[in-house]
């Protein structure tokens, strides 16, 4: 019996290793918001009143920085609903599992204006509100946040982030990105997006130095993206620069630089 359990566990591990992973759900406080599940039929999820996440058809990664799916995955079809969240409140991304150990993670927002359902996500101005990469040690033997947030006790992997307290309220898209760099010079992007209705009394909006577009904001000649972490040059390095603009601190306002 023990041998059968071990074999079953190994089979499950082998299947999940090949399966990468993806952002399954979101929580705000004690409220759970279901995301899209590519293993379930599209027709029972798309357009449902509970759906808050843009559709991602597969757990496979985006490989190219000029792929339109880099913004919100593919096909990125808009949901009808929004997650209500207050400025200054935490929102947690829930992954049932994540297996890759190397590379940075980042969280982005984009202001939709009147409606997130009608926007082209490739035209939006995305700004970063959180990032984490190499936490300690060197690139190969050290600890990345991507590895540190994994749980191996059967519980989900949780990725909490705080919505900037001073942000202007409105409709936004939140974008979680994992960049896995475990294969030399073949970056793997895993983006997923959901719609937010942010409430609050803030007025802050990021200036242009904090915003980029997807695609357009990354290039394949960026050594943080197109990297061989196993090379003699990189494997012993103890620092890693995360691609993209700096994290917006919530205090810079494009309408009032000196506020």
Model description:
The protein is mainly beta. It has two helices and twelve strands. It has helices spanning 2-17, 145-148, and strands at 23-28, 31-34, 83-86, 90-95, 105-113, 126-132, 134-136, 143-144, 157-162, 170-180, 188-199, 211-212. The strands form three sheets. Strands 3-11-10-5-6-12 form a six-stranded mixed sheet, with no helix packed on it. A hairpin with a 2-residue loop joins strand 1 (23-28) and strand 2 (31-34). The radius of gyration is 19 Å and the shape is globular. The model is unreliable at 1-19 and 255-259 (pLDDT under 50).
Secondary structural class: mainly beta
N→C terminal distance: 68 Å
Low-confidence stretches: 1-19, 255-259
- Order of strands across the widest beta sheet? 3-11-10-5-6-12
Order of helices and strands: HEEEEEEEEHEEEE
Shape: globular
Oligomer: single chain
Radius of gyration: 19 Å
- Binned, the helix content reads under 10%
Counted beta strands: 12
% residues in beta strands: 25-35%
Number of helices: 2
Give the overall pLDDT as a whole number.
90
* Largest sheet properties: 6 strands, mixed
């Amino acid at each position: 019996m023990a041998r059968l359990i071990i074999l079953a566990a190994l089979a499950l591990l082998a299947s999940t290793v090949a399966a990468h992973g993806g952002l399954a759900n979101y929580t705000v406080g004690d409220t759970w918001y279901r995301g899209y599940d590519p293993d379930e039929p599209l027709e029972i999820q798309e357009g449902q009143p509970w759906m808050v996440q843009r559709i991602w058809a597969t757990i496979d990664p985006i490989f190219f920085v000029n792929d339109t799916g880099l913004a919100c995955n593919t096909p990125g079809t808009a949901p009808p609903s929004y997650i209500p969240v207050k400025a200054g409140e935490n929102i947690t991304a829930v992954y049932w599992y994540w297996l890759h150990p190397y590379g940075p993670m980042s969280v982005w927002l984009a202001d939709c204006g009147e409606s997130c359902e009608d926007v082209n996500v490739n035209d939006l101005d995305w700004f970063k509100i959180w990032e984490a990469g190499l936490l300690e040690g060197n690139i190969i033997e050290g600890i990345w946040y991507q590895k540190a947030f994994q749980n191996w006790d059967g519980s989900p992997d949780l990725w909490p982030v705080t919505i900037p307290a001073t942000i202007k309220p409105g409709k936004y898209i939140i974008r979680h990105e994992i960049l896995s760099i475990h294969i030399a010079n073949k970056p793997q992007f895993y983006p997923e997006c959901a719609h937010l209705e942010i409430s609050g009394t803030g007025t802050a909006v990021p200036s242009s130095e904090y915003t980029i577009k997807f695609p357009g904001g990354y290039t394949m000649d960026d050594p943080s993206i197109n990297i061989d972490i196993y090379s003699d040059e990189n494997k012993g390095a103890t620092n890693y620069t995360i691609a993209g603009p700096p994290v917006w601190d919530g205090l810079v306002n494009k309408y009032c630089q000196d506020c």
